[in-house]
Amino acid sequence: MNFVLFNVILLFSGFLAVLILSVGVMACLAPMALFAKSENPPRALVFPVMGIAAIYQVYFWGFWSAFCVAMTISYTQKPEVTWVWLYWITGFMWCTSLIGWFFHKEQQTSQSLKETRGIQTGTMLYSLVAIVAFLVFAFNPSLMLLPYGWALKPLGVAIAQPFDSVEEIPPREYVDQQYQFAFQFPADWKIEKDPPSGGAGKVRALIRHPTKPMHVIAMVGDLGTAITKRQFESNPDRELAVDRMMELSIEQLYKKTSRDIGADRMLVSEKRVQPSDTGIKFYISTSHIKGNMTMLMAGIHIVPFEKPYMVTFTMIAPVDRTATKDNETITRVFNSFHVLDEKPIK
């Protein structure tokens, strides 16, 4: 349904675009009507008028490309959209097909070979403008804001950044009321529908970076029994019990993930207990080495007091010290995780 609506909107927008371009070009060329009967209108008028008309058309085709890109981004950010590549191909086709339609119509009205060649040259030029603009805006949508933001924002079309930073866009928040935890993630990350079961229990949320091998997973595992804060603090062997929980998590979750991704070896980089007034909480960080690539997998685990389950929140990302923005983003997502009675890590 989303794909059908996407095409219907672009089809309707194409009709409006034809009207806007036609009216605009006629307005630019209106001064030429004063010399309609003259075979040689003054060059002092012809060149400026034709120049303004050409600039208007270049600006228009840039706007049409920006609109197609913005519409594509808006729809590919929807959680239910999975075939992102199909939307991008379709958006590109709509961007260029309108020029082809204009070329076909203008060619039908041409009265000489010279005029036909002029139409072909103009079509090639404007097609190049539209294609280049589409590619530039697709990879850096923020560039649309300066020339076309005045029109795109009132239209309600999202101008987002699908490939890199999205600092200007407020993050989305996942809140699990049943198990009382929450975390934030960038607006362009994708929530996977019907995720597979995880090694630490039922997967409640699996959210991926749109283009890179980075994702976070929230899981809930049934423990069968609950423990109160008083019972835990009065247990003289509580440190040993938590250590056993960490070792069990490493065996059931981290080593399983390492096998699933085909890693050659796994290293436990860090494991530590974290202070919490709401439950038993600990942190585990591991490295999974496969050839020349190393994947980081880190997790926050918490057993809420008086609840018979454990909540596990893990992040998986490639180790790349040069990818500063990506590292900051995944760290920000990871640190935003918290149970609803606690504040996230700053």
Short description:
The protein contains eight helices and ten strands. The chain is of the alpha+beta class and 346 residues long.
Averaged pLDDT, please?
85
Q: Beta-sheet strand percentage?
A: 15-25%
Spans where pLDDT lies below 50 across 5 or more residues: 160-167
Treating each run of at least 4 consecutive H or I residues as one helix, how many helices?
A: 8
Beginning-to-end CA distance, first to last residue: 40 Å
Q: Name the shape in a single word.
A: elongated
Structural class computed from helices and strand pairing: alpha+beta
Over the alpha carbons, how many angstroms does the gyration radius reach? 29 Å
Q: Report the helical percentage.
A: 40-55%
| Total strand segments | 10
Description:
A seven-stranded antiparallel sheet has the order 3-4-5-9-8-7-6, with helices on both faces. A three-stranded antiparallel sheet has the order 1-2-10. The protein has 346 residues and is an alpha+beta fold. α2 packs antiparallel against α3 and α3 (84-109) runs antiparallel to α4 (113-139). The protein is built from eight helices and ten strands. β4 (202-208) and β5 (215-222) form a beta hairpin. It starts with a helix and ends in a 7-residue tail after the last strand.
